[in-house]
Design goal:
By secondary structure, the protein is α/β, with parallel strands linked by helices. It has a single domain, classed as Rossmann fold. It contains five helices and five strands. The protein has a five-stranded parallel beta sheet with strand order 2-1-3-4-5, with helices on both faces. Strand 3, helix 4 and strand 4 form a beta-alpha-beta unit. The chain is globular and about 35 Å long. Pathway: Metabolic intermediate biosynthesis; chorismate biosynthesis; chorismate from D-erythrose 4-phosphate and phosphoenolpyruvate: step 3/7. GO terms for molecular function: 3-dehydroquinate dehydratase activity. It is an enzyme of class 4 (lyase).
């Protein structure tokens, strides 16, 4: 049983990119926190700057042993119908995750396509939203200890 944690464009720059919005925590630190929160649940933690790669990983989750998907599609949240369509095919719970509160930001960030298919949305908790999302996912899939 595997939990997929998928990250979209520019999240590899976490800790360096707009620290006043995203903080100083790196993606490697976020991954470590996520794995700690997952306990004995297997984690596939991935990041890409390519839309098609996120779609391929969602397809992999659909075909494999994935129990849940946590996805931070970053800027693709607001533009990618193909990612939304891929997520629709996943039968398990999906948590859409954002480091910043997208609803407090510029209007371009207010309409998430992913929210329409996500089980839950977590936004605005900063990088600590990741372990929060992992714990919530464990509850959703019945793996909480």
């Amino acid at each position: 049983m595997t939990l997929y944690i998928l990250n979209g464009p520019n999240l590899n720059r976490l800790g360096k990119r707009e620290p006043e919005i995203y903080g100083h925590t790196t993606l490697a630190e976020v991954e470590a926190w996520s794995r700690d929160a997952a306990g004995d649940l297997s984690v596939e933690f991935r990041q890409t700057n390519a839309e098609h790669q996120l779609i391929d990983w969602i397809h992999e989750a659909i075909e494999g042993s994935a129990r849940g998907i946590i996805i931070n599609p970053a800027g693709l949240t607001f533009t990618s119908v193909p990612i939304m369509d891929a997520l629709k095919m996943f039968s398990g719970p999906i948590i859409e995750l954002h480091i910043s509160n997208i609803h407090q930001r510029e209007a371009v960030y207010h309409n998430s396509l992913m929210s329409k298919v996500a089980t839950a949305v977590i936004a605005g908790l900063g990088p600590r939203g990741y372990p929060t999302a992992v714990r919530a996912m464990r509850d959703l899939i019945g793996e909480a200890v």
